[in-house]
Specification:
Layout: H1 49-63, H2 78-130, H3 135-139, E1 162-165, E2 172-175, E3 184-191, E4 199-204, E5 208-211, E6 219-228, E7 231-232, E8 239-242
Antiparallel strand pairs: 1-2, 2-5, 3-4, 3-6, 6-7, 6-8
Helix pairs in contact: 1-2
Length: 244
């Protein structure tokens, strides 16, 4: 019987899928370091290069003759994986050799540096002995000269006074910017509310202090001024804080 396009129960594309999409190619991007595995716990980020090479060796040994994973189907191939392990080992050896050479080079440099320090100190001593009071001549040696001491002058008010709660009950920690030439600092305190008169609580050299023995939960105000060779400077701005 001659076939017609309208022949009942007849499909001209039978057994053929002309519009079928081609099967997607497998993703063989082996360069990614973030390939996720659900069963293996590689922890590569925690392993040193030497440990990674040992892991590779252990895997190669375990896969040798392993029929669960046919050799022809392995990704990457055994040859490619072996090359990756061998290259990592060679790089490790190269780094170790260069580390040793670098250590030896640094030791040699330290010896030369010590010899230089001795030589330049001796040369500076000679120049100063030859021209002890001739600053112009000493300046012509190419060696740096000590600067003249700067006059201290009058003290300025300490800046950036901060008050914070202390670690223990009844404490407040104080800190301020140090002032050049200050011999010591005078610290005064008063109750903030209601306000009381100022009283000196400390005379010290450091630019920080912890006030103790305060009433917990009460507000206190503090101020600081510097004492220098020419006398006392002005008071800092007040810092207010509640005692811990």
């Amino acid at each position: 019987m001659a076939l017609r396009f309208d022949t009942p129960n007849l499909r001209m594309d039978e057994a053929h899928q002309y519009d079928a999409s081609p099967a997607p190619a497998p993703n063989l991007n082996l360069k990614s370091k973030k390939t996720m595995t659900n069963k293996f716990k590689l922890e590569l980020g925690r392993k040193a290069p030497e440990e990674k090479a040992a892991l590779g060796d252990a895997h190669i040994t375990a896969m040798n003759g392993n029929t669960d994973f046919p050799m022809l189907n392995r990704l990457p191939s055994d040859a490619t994986f072996q090359t990756a392990v061998d290259d990592l080992k060679a790089a490790n050896v190269d780094v170790a050799a260069k580390k040793t050479a670098l250590k030896q080079a640094k030791e040699g440099r330290n010896t030369k540096e010590l010899a230089f320090d001795t030589a330049i100190n001796s040369r500076a001593s000679y120049c100063e002995a030859a021209q002890p009071n001739n600053d112009a001549a000493l300046a012509g040696t190419g060696l740096p000269l000590r600067g003249l001491p700067q006059p201290v002058g009058h003290m300025s008010a300490p800046s950036n006074l901060r008050a914070t709660m202390g670690d223990a009950t009844g404490e407040i920690d104080l800190q301020w910017d140090a002032i050049y030439g200050a011999v010591s600092y005078i610290i005064e305190c008063r109750e903030y509310n209601p306000a009381t008169g100022w009283s000196q609580i400390k005379l010290q050299k450091q630019s920080k202090f912890t006030a103790t023995g305060l009433a917990s939960g009460k507000m206190y105000a503090f101020r600081v001024r510097a004492l220098g060779p020419l006398g006392e400077g002005p008071w800092s701005d007040e810092a207010v804080k509640m005692a811990s």
